[in-house]
Design a protein that fits this description.
The protein has about 200 residues and is mainly beta. It has one domain: UDP N-Acetylglucosamine Acyltransferase, domain 1. The chain is built from 1 helix and 19 strands. Strands 1, 2, 4, 6, 8, 9, 11, 12, 14, 15 and 17 form an 11-stranded parallel β-sheet that branches. Strands 3-5-7-10-13-16-18-19 form an 8-stranded mixed β-sheet. Strand 18 and strand 19 form a beta hairpin. The chain is globular and about 50 Å long. The relative contact order is 0.11. It comes from Marinospirillum celere.
Amino acid sequence: MPCYKIEGVVPVIHPTAYVHPTAVLIGDVEVGPNCYVGPHACLRGDFGRIVLKEGSNVQDTCVMHAFPGMDAIIEKDGHIGHGAVLHGCVIEEDALVGMNAVIMDGARIAPRSIVAATAFVKAGFTCEPESLIIGSPAKVHRQLSADEIKWKQEGTEEYQRLTERCHASLEECEPLTEIEPNRPQLDAGNSQPLHAPKK
């Protein structure tokens, strides 16, 4: 994978984490146990530190960065959807950031909260645990239900299983030129369709 040290600081990836070969890690980056980093994600630790704690995931094309003297942190079981941008913020334990959302400097997303897809969270934003955060600029819309928190946790567990699946079987290959007879379908275990919480 593209992995670069800067001024002698080298990224650290726990052996149980999975980082896709097309992801880019630069400098002061720490990827913890059982984390997943998807294709074309960019974790740029050339100013502030980038930290992914145990069981968190950063999906395809996400960007993490921070200004000097600030860190961008995803706490345990944090879940970052495709294309999100995290800049100098903290995503607390078991929180989710939706696809293409932007979280700015000094913002803290409280535990078990959900930031809706495409939300823009202003610098310095804070909220109470279990908040549903929507809009541009984003605001707390309401508290999450127990079912919505469970939905988030099940989605994060799927990505933790994906980490294991990638270690076990993901490998680069040449594409086929036609569909083979009896083509298998992927079975990710107990996967069920995931539906986002209602606004």
